[in-house]
Design goal:
This protein has six helices and twelve strands. With 303 residues, the chain is α+β, with helices and mostly antiparallel strands.
């Protein structure tokens, strides 16, 4: 009697253990499935957010820089990379610009800020900023409210027009902010307005280059709709409202009539000889050369 009871108890115990093991297995599989689904959702969400933020950042803070393509690389449920291939349009000629590699994961996103920041080169009295991958020159804007700049405020228009059979981009900085109408009137029609410089921080640039970020947008026709889109993009870019320079700009321009909106400078591109019309103009504070490219017989410049 005792033996049969013991056998029955052992059998029941084995069944109970088997049931517990089965339930534990099912729970583990279910948890793994749920965790993987959550991981895939978070990764996909962060991927989409990173794609959007890279496009947005380029639109408002990269003068005359175009995104040719943006692809996902090394993608897993835990994360991966987004590769952004970029170029510049110099009066119809496309030239390479630095490629960005950004990272996303379950926990968030990150970008390579090193590639976004220009390098600084000084050799004797010569000083300029450059793109770290392509080694092409960065064109520098000068804020009208900043009195002193490291290396001085350059006006390189006389040097540009000496180049023969070439195209150039030049950052034209104004002595004081100009209205859209004034920009239309002052910039010659044989040059392309590639980008509008609208705002940046006002910091001390005399002691050394600090790499202050400029903000603006591309609009060769200077339309009100493009400016409204620019303001909306600034709001999206600083959703936490933590960037004082952007929030101040939005507040000051939210309800301003379009004919009162002012521009701090423009990036223009064109044939080097066409820059002669800008020589000696009183509204120009500085002119900084960026990318230059030789004209070839089989590609027609835009202007």
């Amino acid at each position: 009697m005792d033996s049969s009871i013991q056998k029955a108890l052992k059998k029941a115990k084995r069944k109970q253990l088997a049931k517990i093991a089965l339930i534990s297995f099912i729970v583990c599989i279910t948890l793994l499935f749920i965790i993987s689904r959550i991981g895939m959702y978070l990764t996909a969400r962060n991927t989409a957010q990173l794609h959007e933020s890279l496009l947005l950042e380029n639109a408002i803070s990269q003068p005359n820089v175009n995104i040719d393509s943006q692809v996902t690389s090394n993608s897993t449920m835990f994360g991966g990379n987004i590769i952004t291939y970029r170029s510049k349009d110099i009066d119809g000629y496309l030239v390479p610009w630095s490629t960005l590699t950004s990272t996303y994961s379950l926990f968030g996103t990150s970008g390579d800020s090193n590639e976004r920041t220009p390098g600084f080169h000084k050799n004797g009295d010569t000083y300029f900023e450059y793109d770290k991958q392509t080694k092409q020159r960065f064109a520098t804007f000068y804020h009208p409210a900043i009195k002193q700049y490291y290396g001085g405020v350059q006006n390189q228009l006389p040097a540009v027009i000496q180049l023969k059979n070439q195209l150039a981009e030049v950052a034209i900085s104004f002595k004081q902010p100009l209205t859209m109408k004034q920009v239309r009137d002052y910039i010659p029609e044989n040059l392309n307005i590639a980008w509008l410089y609208m705002l940046s921080e006002k910091v001390d640039e005399a002691a050394g280059p600090s790499g202050v970020q400029v903000y603006g947008y591309s609009d060769s026709k200077l339309l009100k709709e493009s400016f409204e889109e620019f303001k909306n993009n600034l709001k999206k870019y600083d959703t936490r409202q933590s960037m004082e320079v952007i929030q101040d700009y939005i507040a000051n321009n939210q309800n301003k009539p379009f004919n009162e909106v002012t521009v701090l400078g423009v990036m223009v591109t064109g044939r080097t000889e066409n820059f002669k019309e800008l020589l000696g103009k009183d509204f120009i504070r500085g002119a900084s050369v960026g990318v230059t490219v030789p004209i070839v017989p089989y590609i027609q410049p835009t202007k």
